[in-house]
Write a structure and sequence with these properties.
It is a single chain. With 321 residues, this protein is an alpha/beta fold. The chain has one domain: TIM Barrel (Alpha-Beta Barrel). 36% of the residues lie in helices and 15% in strands. The protein contains 12 helices and 12 strands. The strands form 3 sheets. An 8-stranded parallel β-sheet has the order 3-4-5-8-9-10-11-12. Helix 1 (33-45) links the parallel strand 3 (18-19) and strand 4 (50-52). The mean pLDDT is 92.
């Protein structure tokens, strides 16, 4: 496992982390808590030091599973990044845990409340990285959430302040970054072989401001592992039935077919590993957080760190369709 410092002010983390959305038990199909716990344990065994989650993942369940493993193994060098801003506490109650429809809430008092709830679930003295969770322009282009981050840091409840930028809004949201960059230590950004909007303006800005980059959705919801085809369908509450609808799947797969010569350059690697290596190749990017449900998936992901980045000159442009 290789390690890098997240920008000028962030912590040192493994270049491959663990994305803990899927283990929350919602939106990714069925999960088994014991398998999820074993995946977390395997990640630590393979040298992963960055675990990324959010309060809304499984309505707190992802954080609870992480807390269980931290209690077993000890915190050590592990960096926990969680998120706040998607309010599932105060909506009209609809489910068996007493939670309802998720709504954005970036009021200062709410961000502080959500952070305190995450602290309790995680069982830690301070949250290593607290990220504003994909808020829209109106919620983020005001002082409230940024004041909350600054206050939480001053109180010692969080160590690093961060922002997980809304997907496909990377360039649009740069003016907010310009305004509040002094508060931020890290950014989380959607970035993969087929989606590279962040390269245009956001990555140069991050380098200019000394802000670290955590790459999310590096495998495009599993598409860049090579396991999906045009007949793939998703059921139940699996969010991929929208994010990888038949129409989107057709377009993505057509692009992926054009990238076959690129993947063929690395015959001793899985598609997963080559796709993850791409994500840590850009100078702005220090770490990537692929999701994993099983120890086998963790092992495949972690091997990409040992292989290191791909030379930028060898990376093809985004295929057109």
């Amino acid at each position: 496992m290789q390690f890098k410092k997240l920008g000028k002010r962030g912590p040192i983390v493994s270049t491959v982390g663990f994305g803990a959305w899927a283990i929350g038990g919602r939106n990714w199909g069925p999960t088994d808590d014991e398998v999820s716990l074993n995946a977390l344990r395997a990640a630590i065994d393979y040298g992963v030091t960055l675990i990324d989650t959010a309060d809304v993942y499984g309505f707190g369940h992802s954080e609870e599973l992480i807390a269980q493993v931290l209690k077993e193994r000890g915190k050590g060098d592990i960096i926990i990044a969680t998120k706040a801003g998607n309010d599932f506490y105060f909506a009209s109650k609809t489910d068996d845990k007493g939670y309802g429809a998720i709504q954005q809430n970036y009021k200062k008092d709410y961000i502080i409340y959500a952070a305190e709830q995450s602290l309790k679930r995680l069982g830690v003295e301070a949250i290593d990285i607290l990220q504003l969770h994909s808020g829209d322009w109106d919620n983020l282009n005001r002082d409230d959430p940024w004041e909350a981050l600054a206050l939480l840091k001053e109180q010692g409840k969080i160590i690093h302040a961060a922002w997980s930028i809304q997907s496909f809004k990377e360039t649009e949201h740069v003016p907010i970054l310009d305004r509040y960059h002094k508060i931020l230590d890290t950014l989380q950004v959607r970035y993969n072989l087929l989606e590279r909007e962040a390269e245009k303006i956001l990555f140069p800005k991050a380098i200019e401001y000394g802000i670290g980059i955590i790459v999310r959705i590096p495998l495009l919801f599993g598409l860049l592992t090579g396991k999906f085809n045009r007949d793939t369908r998703f059921d139940g509450d699996d969010h991929r039935k929208f994010n990888l609808s038949p129409e989107k799947l057709e377009r993505y797969l057509a692009q992926l077919e054009q990238l076959k010569p690129f993947f063929d350059n690395y015959p001793d690697q899985t598609m997963t590993q080559t796709s993850l290596r791409f994500c840590i190749s850009h100078p702005a990017c220090q770490t990537v957080i692929p999701g994993a449900k099983t120890p086998a998936q963790v092992r495949d992901n972690c091997a990409a760190s040992d292989l290191g980045p791909i030379p930028m000159a060898d990376i093809p442009p985004v295929p057109e369709v």
